[in-house]
Amino acid sequence: MASPGRPDTVLVPRCPVIFNGTNWGDFVFHMEVHMDGQLLWGDLTGERICPPRPLLPTPPTYPTDADDNAKNDLLEAFEAEMESYQSHLGVYETWLCKEKSAKNISLASMEVDL
User: Fold this and answer.
1) Residue 31: how many CB atoms within 10 A of its CB?
2) Domain-wise residue ranges, the chain
3) Which of 34, 82, 94, 104 has the most CB atoms lying inside 10 A of its own CB?
4) What is the rounded end-to-end Cα distance, in angstroms, of the chain?
5) What is the pLDDT of residues 26-45, one digit of tens each?
6) Does this model's pTM top 0.90?
7) What are the CA-CA distances from residue 49 to residues 13, 45, 100 (Å)?
8) Can you give the pLDDT at residue 5?
């Protein structure tokens, strides 16, 4: 685990029982309780899978003969697509962040020489 004296370190909330290669039964029980408390157990078990990465919408292109109403409709549709994109991107990025936390906790909860 990182030294708390360094300002650029991040402390990882590791499981109270460290896996040493021989204590699987105790470790997995405590790991489930610990990760459930961190709201990350479903990320480890695969219960919560990674959502698809959203695709950035393409800005509208206006036909040369489009009137203002047609342009406005295209722009409104694009803005709605952008709102949906932002929402889905937030869900995707949150999942990635939680996955990284789960990996960090898992690795910090095992002896290094395994």
Assistant:
1) 23
2) 24-108
3) 34
4) 16
5) 999 999 999 999 999 998 89
6) no
7) 22, 9, 13
8) 61
